[in-house]
Amino acid sequence: MNNSSDQWLRLPAEWEPQSFLQLTFPHPHSDWAYLLDQASACFVDIIEAAARFQKVLVVCDNVKRVHAYFRNTANVYFVEAPSNDTWARDHSGITVLENGKAIVQDYIFNGWGKKFEAGQDNLITKSLFGQGILQHCELKSFDFVLEGGSIESDGLGTILTTTECLLEENRNPQYAQQEIEAILKQNFGAKRILWLSNGYLAGDDTDSHIDTLARLCNENTIAYVGCNDPEDEHFEALQKMKAELKRFTTNDGRPYKLVELPFADPCFDEEGNRLPATYANFTLINGAVLLPVYGLKQDAEAVDILQQIFPEKEIIPINCRVLIEQHGSLHCVTMQYPGAVGLNIEN
């Protein structure tokens, strides 16, 4: 196998050049109905920030309705497709490169283990191909449940994930862990899978998606959610997760540089349920980091830490307090497509 990046099957890292970012916009028949204007305003903030740096594809129920929310639509492209909800990270295609050619892998999205209706979301990627929106790539479908938020890639053959999600009984119960690992290696050209077996956030519907807990920032660095309050319910699990991360090594056998992200003060919904506020749920785009903030005292520290990790990028804090009302955050509503994928649509 030739190790040059264009001569083998691989899952590009998020920090590699991107063609565009995809989001699926809230609509009146989604779970956002009771917070539609607030959620829509947050989506507009994310989209307009990203559009300063690259193209953004917005999947929506009605282009005219959604367009009216925007102040500026430069670099923003709208396409209609039915959807149940808005979590593009998990219902979008996952793009690999094989010998330099982009292949959009379409997995089954079953509402995070059959928790929520997801039939329309599961068809969005096929709809984009059917409408001729995605170019210079091919579609490949898999009879396997997988969400984009459940895996992290360094683009060099390492996948970081969690046992809590990938081994959950309502996703792929027919496969044992070693079989799932073999599938990940085959589909993504991965050489090794790093499994975290500890770590969770209260209010998370995803069964501990990796993108809420620990993120590969480059091939040698992992940013992770820390908790140093022994009285907090997350303390034990996140301390164990930190210990696991310390045992992981890079592709060349060295310990990872671990960067602890601040633990957000508890946030609650109106019924008193704790919500999954996390600074790990940032999105990398060309030239910038879109960082979710929550109106908390830890926000500024999170910005500073991300700036140290990504000194060459602009750190753009976006208030995502409304997003955690539906148990996700910024990375959860976005999906990047690598530079090899073309976008065939008029602005």
UniProtKB/TrEMBL annotation:
The keyword Hydrolase applies. Keywords: Hydrolase. One of its GO terms (biological process) is putrescine biosynthetic process. One of its GO terms (molecular function) is agmatine deiminase activity. InterPro entries: Peptidyl-Arg-deiminase_porph. SUPFAM superfamilies: Pentein. It comes from the Bacteria. The keyword Hydrolase applies. This is Agmatine deiminase. It comes from Draconibacterium orientale.
